[in-house]
Amino acid sequence: MKYLSIVLSLFFSAAILQADSGGPPATPVVVSKVKMETIKKNLKVSGRIVARKLATLSPQQSGLVQEIAIEAGQWVKTGQVLLRLDAERASLAVAAVKAEVDVTKSELQKLEKLAKLQKEEFNDLIKAEKQLAGSVSKSELRSAESRLVELEGQVAINKAQLIVLMTQLKQAELTLVQHTLTAPFDGQVLKKNVAKGNWLLSGQAAFSLIDSNDLEVQLDCPDHLFFILEQGLKTLDINLDESKKSFQIVDIIARREVDARSKTFQVIGVPKTSDVLLVHGMTVSADIPSQADVTVKTLPYNAILKNDVGSFVYKVAMGQNGAMVLPIPVKVLFKMDHRAAIESMALQTDDQVVTEGGERLFPMTPVAVKEAVQ
After folding, report:
1. What is the pLDDT of residue 94?
2. What architecture is the 43-52+213-290 domain classified under in CATH?
């Protein structure tokens, strides 16, 4: 501090001598004032726009591609057919099982009728024996009962067979349906990886589908911000790095998982309705609050110059012969919009610093304040 005072005194003395000796004319400059501001210190983080629904579609059966109903870039609706595989064998399998089902049902109906008749006959014999003892022989009763039990057993077996066949029919019909690939949600086909006549394996990628109307923003934040962000943010301004446009996200959550390698966790939010065109994969950034309010000296960022020693600004000082500039070293703490938070013992609130024209100046150059920017 003592050294700085000596330097400033020398600057003032030299400036007075220069003015007395008829120095150069004053240089016009634009200035702004140093301010004390209470702000939230933010940290810039990066991220991306991601579609919530992004799928690689593949058939559940293998087969020859018989028909392709859609091309890359087209929009589709849920359930819309994308492609069909050759399903002749699957169709034949369905027809064969259906035939077995029909035969079994017919046989079951016949057995149920016979069992019903046999039960009526057996009941009649029991009734006759009760009305007139000895009118029905025991062997006749046993024969009728045995036949009834046999028929009821066959009915039970056929019912079980029918259940098995119905299950097989559902499986065959499902296999047939799986030879047709449909869209699981509304969206746009990004890629088509198949052509008519190709042999497509089960699980092999055929299309990529995206719902670009259902997006979220994923920001990668340093782990030391977790406890601040977990407290909750209602909204957050997001910047599109390429277009310089911005939008807001809502429904913000901090995902409770820290990546061991990058030491970051994800903050996720849903874009609020805006006129900004958002696309899956876009790079974005945001200024995240990183600590409580702080009070700092601020000045316009374009007032800061650099030399081999470091950052400095030109401060306007008044001497006996008018205004001149003195170089004042500053330490830039962080940037915020068009201003910067700085540390400097030699700058006080309302001091004027040069914001335009500083590149033409040298220490102790006489200046004419052309315009004061507040």
Report:
1. 97
2. Beta Barrel (2.40)
Pairing state between β 305-306 and 311-319: antiparallel
Question: What is the rounded distance in angstroms from the CA atom of residue 297 to the CA atom of residue 350?
Answer: 10
pLDDT at residue 8, as a whole number: 45
Is residue 330 a contact partner of residue 312, using CB atoms and an 8 Å limit? yes
Where are the domains positioned within the chain?
2-40+295-373, 43-52+213-290, 53-73+185-212, 88-178
Distance CA 269, CA 248 (A): 9
Helix (H, G, I), strand (E, B) or coil at 288: strand
The pLDDT, as a whole number, for residue 14 is 46
Instruction: Quote the pLDDT of residue 3.
Output: 42
Ranges of residues in the chain whose predicted pLDDT is under 70: 1-24, 230, 242, 291-292, 371-374
| pLDDT for the residue numbered 106 | 96
Ramachandran angles phi, psi of 97, nearest 5°? -65, -40
CB atoms within 10 A of CB 317: 18
Q: What pLDDT, on the 0 to 100 scale, is given for residue 338? A: 83
Q: Residue 288: what pLDDT?
A: 82
- 217 DSSP assignment: E
Select from 1.10.287, 2.30.30, 1.10.10, 3.30.700 the CATH code of 88-178.
1.10.287
| Amino acid (one-letter) located at 231 | Q
Sequence-distant (≥ 6) Cβ neighbours of residue 133 within 8 angstroms = none
Tokens of 54: 């992004």
C-alpha closest to that of 68 among 56, 83, 54 = 83
Give one DSSP letter per residue of 321-360, joined into a string: TEEEEEEEE-EEEEEETTEEEEE-TT--TT-EEEEESGGG
CA distances from 257 to 50, 217, 228 (A): 18, 17, 15
Q: Which residues contact 176 (CB under 8 A, 6 or more apart)?
A: 87, 90, 91, 93, 94
Tokens of 349: 């609130």
Classify domain 2-40+295-373 by CATH number.
2.40.420.20
d(CA 69, CA 301): 57
- 3-state secondary structure (DSSP) of residue 208: strand
